[in-house]
């Protein structure tokens, strides 16, 4: 398709924002965020912790001990970098892959495991933790985020609403409706599209004729930026700026993070070897966010093998304990679901509930 000069001008504006190259070298000194040495180390700790957590979760899924799980390896910088720029009062509206962000925001790890198992307690977020239950419907959280951000604006709250979806979510109707509403009402929202290149199995190039997802912000009249999603410093800096923009009354931001998931879309039967080549996998593994940031920290004498080993052991211990707690949760009953869904039961459901009470009492 031949592109018009006007379209080409728009696309040329969306250059990938980067601070660290693949070797962990700073290539954009002016954009370096102001983070202390301890904060830099904390970013690394969270990425290592999340990688171990992901490996263990995949193993638990294969053992039949977890349930639904969407792997996150490769996307740690995108997830943790965005979350690190948030404050506790901000609201997160996650998709089903965005479990690390909500755990770091205050949701207990054992509760995340219960959500994965489909247990009703998994969706009952703790008081004071500003998190919505992970959305299964692809892209639906985009519209919800626009609404939450509208509420924050109307109540003059010093907070933003942030949401996440993948490149496939950016092809949904809800995506366009949500960012359009957010732009029209100038609400404090941040929309993060984690472009891992495949909406389950469909390459991003076949989903849209747009060169970038970030440029879709133009049609909604909001700010858009494309970020190297394997560079945690760039992700953090872009999100920090987007949050400030929202709080200052300058409207929402669409952030496209260029990233990659090493594993399958979910553990529910997806086989990435059917639609991805080993060459492509190798290309993206060379951009690994942990390797890149590790090199950066080692160059500043801020990281060591011993420190990383400690994080690995802590992650294993925490996961072991969280699974124990999840296993000890009360067995889910049909009557519990009925009671949670209805304040007053219709006649036919009263009869059904009585039947289930009898079954559950045996």
Describe it for me?
- Helix 2 crosses helix 3, helix 2 packs antiparallel against helix 11 and helix 3 (76-84) runs parallel beside helix 9.
- The model has no long low-confidence stretch (mean pLDDT 96).
- The protein is 47% helix and 9% strand.
- The chain is built from 14 helices and 7 strands.
- The chain has 362 residues and is α/β, with parallel strands linked by helices.
- It has helices spanning 5-12, 37-62, 76-84, 99-104, 109-117, 140-154, 173-184, 217-220, 232-247, 278-285, 289-299, 305-327, 334-341, 347-360; strands at residues 91-93, 161-166, 189-195, 198-199, 202-203, 223-228, 253-258.
A few lines on this structure:
By secondary structure, the protein is α/β, with parallel strands linked by helices.
Mean pLDDT: 96
What is the number of helices?
A: 14
Largest sheet: 5 strands, parallel
Global shape: globular
Query: Which class do the helix and strand fractions yield?
Result: alpha/beta
In total, the number of strands is 7
Described by its quaternary structure, the protein is: single chain
Helix proportion range:
40-55%
H and E order = HHHEHHHEHEEEHEHEHHHHH
> How much of the sequence is in beta strands?
5-15%
Q: Tell me the distance between the termini.
A: 67 Å
Neighbour order of strands in the largest sheet: 1-2-3-7-6
Low-confidence stretches: none
Rg computed from alpha carbons, rounded to a whole number of angstroms = 21 Å
């Amino acid at each position: 398709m031949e592109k018009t000069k006007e379209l080409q001008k728009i696309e040329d504006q969306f250059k990938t924002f980067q601070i660290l190259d693949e070797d962990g070298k700073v290539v954009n000194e002016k954009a370096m965020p102001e983070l202390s040495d301890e904060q830099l180390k904390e970013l690394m700790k969270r990425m290592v912790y999340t990688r171990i957590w992901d490996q263990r979760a995949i193993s638990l899924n294969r053992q039949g001990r977890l349930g639904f799980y969407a792997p996150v390896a490769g996307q740690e910088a995108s997830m943790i970098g965005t979350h690190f720029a948030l404050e506790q009062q901000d609201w997160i509206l996650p998709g089903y892959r965005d479990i690390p962000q909500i755990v770091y925001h205050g949701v207990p790890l054992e509760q995340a495991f219960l959500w994965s198992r489909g247990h009703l307690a998994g969706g009952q977020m703790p008081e004071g933790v500003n998190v919505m239950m992970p959305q299964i419907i692809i892209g639906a959280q985009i519209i919800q985020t626009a609404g939450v951000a509208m509420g924050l604006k109307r109540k003059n709250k010093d907070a933003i609403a942030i949401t996440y979806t993948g490149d496939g979510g950016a092809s949904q109707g809800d995506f366009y409706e949500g960012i359009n509403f957010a732009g029209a009402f100038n609400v404090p929202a941040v929309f993060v599209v984690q472009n891992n290149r495949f909406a389950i199995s469909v390459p991003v190039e076949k989903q849209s004729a747009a060169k970038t997802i970030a440029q879709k912000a133009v049609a909604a009249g909001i700010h858009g930026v494309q970020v190297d999603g394997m560079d945690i410093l760039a992700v953090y800096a872009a999100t920090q700026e987007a949050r400030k923009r929202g709080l200052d009354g300058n409207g929402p931001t669409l952030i496209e993070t260029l990233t990659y998931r090493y594993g399958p879309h979910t553990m529910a039967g997806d086989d990435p070897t059917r639609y991805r080549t080993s060459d492509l996998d190798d290309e993206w593994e060379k951009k690994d966010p942990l390797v890149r940031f590790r090199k950066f920290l080692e160059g500043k004498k801020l990281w060591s093998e011993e420190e990383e080993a400690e994080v690995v052991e802590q992650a294993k211990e925490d996961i072991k304990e969280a699974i124990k707690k999840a296993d000890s949760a009360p067995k889910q009953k049909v009557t519990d679901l009925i009671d949670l869904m209805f304040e007053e039961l219709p006649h036919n459901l009263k009869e059904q509930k009585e039947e289930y009470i009898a079954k559950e009492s045996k």
